Amino acid sequence: MTTTDPTTAARAVADECTHAYQDAFADRLVAAYLLGSLAYGGYAPAVSDIDLALILTDTRAGDHDIVATTGETLRGQGGLYRKLSVFWSSLPALRAGHDDGRFPALDRLELADHGVLLLGRGITRQVARPATDELLLDSARFAVDVLATDEVTAEFRHPRRLLTDPVWFTKAVLFPVRFLYTGMRAGGRAATNAEAIDWYLAQPEPTAASLVRLAARVRAGDPLNPEQVALELAAGLIPLYQHYISDQTRWLRRANAPTSIISAFTRWHQCLGQFGGGAARPATG
C-alpha cells in the first residue's frame, strides 16, 4: 500500500483548488501561485496552511464574493481543504506596489521571492517589492486587527484554545518572532518561520526562549501537552508580546507612523501590563 507524504498530498489539494478558481474566473485568471511553506520548504502538516495566490487581469464588483464562495465550497470538503488560505489581487495593482483584493505586503514579498507557479504565466518579476517600512507597517496593522483584540487578549490572560489547538498556539507564539525578524534582519527579503526562530533564539537572552522552542517543536509535529503548554504560556507569552510591542512602538514613532497605530500599540502594551507581571493562567471551569 502506497502512502502519500503530507507535502505531496497538500500540493495535490492546492492544484485542485487552483482549477476550481480557474473555473470561477475563466480567462481573467492570469496565474495561480503556491505560497508559504509549501513553496519555500518546511511544510508542517499539523499547523501549516495551504496558501494559494490568485492573480487576475483586473478586479470587479463581485470578485470578493467569488473568492469567498469558492473557498467556502472547497473548505467544506474537509480534511486538508480546511487549510486553504487565498490571497488575490489584479496584476496591475501588484505591479504598482499595492493590492486591490487581499494581498498584504509580506505576502506580496513572499510571492516575489518564493512563489511557485501552479497555473498560467509567470509574473513574479513584475511584482513591486514592498519597502521595509511598508512591511513593518502592514505587520503592525495586522497585529492590531487580529492580535490586539479583546478576545485574543482575554485568551492570553486565561488560555483555553491555546492549550488544545496547535495551529493557534504556534501562530500566537511565532507571529511576534517573525515580525521582529522581518523588521530587524530580513533586509527586504521574505523570511521563513525557521529563519525567524533560529535568528531569535540566537539573540542574547531572548525573551520567552523556552516558549519559542516549544512552539518550534509543536510546529514540527510534537503533540500539545496542555500542562506543559500552560506553564510555558504563563511564564513567557505576555513578556514575549510586551517585548515585541515595545520594539515595534519605537520603530513606529521613528517612522512617523499614523497616530492611530501608535496609540493602538500603546493601549495594547498597557492592557497586557495590567496582568500582574505578565503571567497568563489557564482558564478554569
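the 2nd protein, sequnce then structure:
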Amino acid sequence: MTNVLMVLSAASHWTLADGTQHPTGVWAEEFLEPHRIFTEAGWKIQLASPGGSAPTFDPTSLSEAGAGSAERVHEFEQRISALDSVLQHPLRLDAVNIGDYDVIFYPGGHAPMEDLAVDEDSGQLIVEAVKSNTTLGVLCHAPAALLAAHDRSNGEWVLKGRKMTGFANSEEHIGGLADKAKWLVETRLVDLGADYSQAAEPFAPYVVVDGELYTGQNPASSVAVAERIVADKS
C-alpha cells in the first residue's frame, strides 16, 4: 500500500507587511481534492502539522467566491466534517519518520507563508524527501515550505535549479494582496535559484514535474497534480 503524509499548516493568519493579521488557513480544495484522489486510489493517508495542531481552513476557501458555488461550499463543509476526528489529531512534524511514507504532500493557502516557510522540522522533512528521492507534492502557496529546506551540512537550498511552479505574483496581484505582502512565493523561489514557470493565463491549471518533485500553481491545479502523482506511482 502507498503511504501518504499530508503536511498541513497550523496557522490561522498571515502577517502582512504592516503587521496586520490576514485571516487564512489551509485552502479547502487543495486539501480535500488530493485527499479524495489519494483515498480513491486506495492509499493510506496520515496528516501532520507543526506541533500536531489541528488546521484552520481559510474562510475564503469555504465561500462561494473561493469554492465556486454554494453547492461546492456545502460539499467541502460536509467532507471536512466527516474528517474532523482525523483533522483534530495530526502527527507532530518533529515526530515524522520520512521512511514511513512514499509520498509527502503539502496543500496551500496563505498559511504556509506564516509557519511552514520558517519551520525547521518541515524544512528538514523536505531535505530528507529530496535526498531519499521520496515523491514530494507541493501546491499553490505551499512552495513557501520549500524555502526552509536548507542542507544543515552546508546551508545550501536543496532545490536550487529544480523545475517548479507555485502561486504566481500575477495571481497575488489579481487577488489584491501582493502589495500588502512581506514577500511573494514566486519571487522567493526565483531568488533562491528555482527554475520557475507558470501557466500562460492566471489561475489556469498548471503542473510541473521534475523527477519526484510535483508542483501545482494554484487551486485549479489541485486535481491535476494529485492525479499526476497517482498515475506515476501506480
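The first strand starts at residue 3 and ends at 7. The radius of gyration is 16 Å.
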